[in-house]
Design goal:
Layout (H helix, E strand, L loop, with lengths): L16 H15 L2 E5 L5 E6 L12
Antiparallel strand pairs: 1-2
Length: 61
């Protein structure tokens, strides 16, 4: 499931986590925002900023 920040409802869903991540990544690229992937327990597992030039220079990722 993918949910854009500020939305109450899911933007889209997919049958597998990999497909959902790909859809979410494409949404982030199209919107020029950060893509955050959460683990099952809700912790942040991965985050990427699009376009990459917007990524803060001090970040570890």
């Amino acid at each position: 499931m993918n949910k854009a920040e500020g939305n109450e409802r899911a933007s889209n869903s997919a049958p597998t986590k990999a497909e959902a991540q790909a859809l979410g990544r494409q949404m982030a690229i199209n919107r020029g925002v950060e893509h955050v992937i959460h683990d099952q327990d809700g912790a942040i597992g991965e985050r990427n900023t699009y376009p990459r030039s917007r990524d803060p220079k001090q970040s570890k990722g």
